[in-house]
Design goal:
single chain, 195 residues, globular
């Protein structure tokens, strides 16, 4: 019963639309109708500015961190339970009930999840992300590259079979949510990232 309620709570926390809330608080337009239409940090950065983009990134990341810390520290769940809570938080961000199940791509929330569950993997992933971004200047390509790499890293660095399965699902969903970006990358119309 505890796991059931923690999973529901993780989903509801993950579903909080950080970018939408922040842009509305500052009196900006609905982020879903601006730029790429995505609710994540990259679109908020481009539309509403660097400061709000960074705050959105942190907020979305915390949606992965907070449910897992509660599950680990407060309830000492087994690995299967932890993996389920992680998936619930991630799916909450991608398919939030508050926005008619139309959410973000999950990269920042996944980052928060792996900061808790496999911090060493995050160090390697940051190297992959930064190198790809530096070389090609596409946030989407860097995100896809990191997502494609994370299952192997978790498999090599962690001993939890449940975490590996959860990671495969998360990585697959991140890549799936980037399918429009993949088409734009192939056609040469994807926006490059500029500081």
């Amino acid at each position: 019963m505890t796991l059931f309620f923690l999973t529901i709570a993780a989903y509801l926390i993950g579903a909080i639309p950080t970018g939408v809330i922040l842009t509305r608080l500052v009196g900006g337009e609905d982020i879903r109708s601006a730029g790429s239409g995505n609710i994540g940090a990259t679109n908020v950065y481009r539309v509403a500015g660097r400061k709000l983009g960074v705050i959105t990134l942190v907020g979305d990341c915390l949606k992965g961190v907070i449910p897992l810390l509660i599950a680990q520290q407060g309830f000492n769940l087994a690995e299967n339970g932890i993996a389920l809570v992680a998936l619930a938080a991630f799916i909450g961000h991608c398919y939030p009930i508050y926005l008619g199940f139309k959410g973000g791509k999950g990269v920042a929330t996944a980052l928060g999840i792996f900061l808790v569950l496999s911090p060493l993997s995050v160090l390697y992933l940051l190297v992959v992300f930064v190198l790809v971004l530096w070389k090609w200047r596409y946030i989407s390509l860097a995100s896809i590259s990191a997502a494609a790499t994370v299952p192997l890293l978790v498999f090599l660095l962690e001993s939890s079979f449940a975490l590996v399965i959860a990671t495969l699902i998360i990585a697959s969903l991140v890549i799936w949510k980037h399918r429009a970006n993949i088409e734009r990358l192939r056609s040469g119309t994807e926006n490059k990232f500029n500081l």
